[in-house]
Amino acid sequence: MVPGLLLCLGITVVAQGLQAGEEHLTGHPYVEALVLAILLGTAVRTAWVPGARFKAGIAFSAKQVLEVAVTLLGAAVSLGAIVASGSALLAGIVGAVALTILASCALCRALGLPVRMALLIACGNAICGNSAIAAVAPVIGADSRDVAAAIAFTAVLGVLMVLGLPLFVPLVGFSEHQYGVLAGLTVYAVPQVLAATVPVGPLATQVGTLVKLVRVLMLGPVVLALSLYASRLPASRATGKATPGSAQGSAKGSTKGSAASRPGFFKLVPWFILGFLALASLRSLGLIPDAWIAPISRLAGFLTIVSMAALGLGVDVRVLAQVGGRVTVAVTASLLVLLAIAILLIRGLGLG
């Protein structure tokens, strides 16, 4: 695995260096290292096809490394902040995420996108962009082309959201508090929330960050639900096989048809989801020291970037270009749905 791992690590280091350059020049990473890694990986794959000796390390980085990263994300989740934020705001966040996923999936399917691509786009827009896409992908058995396409187009719209969302303050007449809620509900990444709210004011930044963190917490329940739903998904178009969590997959190695119809718990719920929930529980109980949270989060972020570099190395740009038009429309429509739902919830619940 060493050659493939080293290649992914090299791309990761370059991506982090580019993000550091952005922060030095602009103060904010408008295009994060996670996105840069997949773009760099795709560029490398376009210019040069890695040989057979790289395949094992790239495959390990794209799957197992990503699963470890998702597990570590649970250590940064605390239920205390959720309870303190208030029942109305909590209900609004849960409602916004649920409605956006359902509406986005319906839109994507209406546009003719495969069900896995629809789920990736819906979860990316509804929860936390690239991180949600990366977490959902192994659960539903999405192939690298779908993951790369969803992340690429979501990344572009993420930057546009940061630049354009402050225009909503005069257009919709929101208070600074309400704008913070809007930013937290719609902007993809925490650094992007900061970039979108700092120009408006400190209250918008504080509220937006809190709402965003609560919204990220929805990743756990959503991924858990999808792991249970994965058995109903059709065969993957890339492999012609069932998803890892599917009944067919759980029957692998078994000669009994009944075994496929009754997959065990650990086949339905991937180990890294259980790990995520376990770390979140430990964090909420105060068993993970505060001093550990930042290093664990940094490690999770680094491993996610490594896995995105691996995904980029598996992308054929020509295939990505073929699906670009429909995916662009789907991601844009899904984002507009999220904005509409967020505005309606803010007005309806009287937040701020």
TrEMBL record:
Compositionally biased residues, Low complexity: 245-260
Keywords: Cell membrane, Membrane, Transmembrane, Transmembrane helix
Primary localisation category: membrane
Spans traversing the lipid bilayer: 30-52, 64-83, 89-111, 118-141, 147-169, 181-201, 213-231, 268-286, 292-315, 327-346
Bilayer topology: Multi-pass membrane protein
Residues covered by region (Disordered): 237-260
Compartments, as annotated in UniProt: Cell membrane
InterPro entries cross-referenced by the UniProt entry: UPF0324_pro
Designated name of the protein: Sulfate exporter family transporter
Organism of provenance: Methylobacterium oryzae
Lineage: Bacteria, Pseudomonadati, Pseudomonadota, Alphaproteobacteria, Hyphomicrobiales
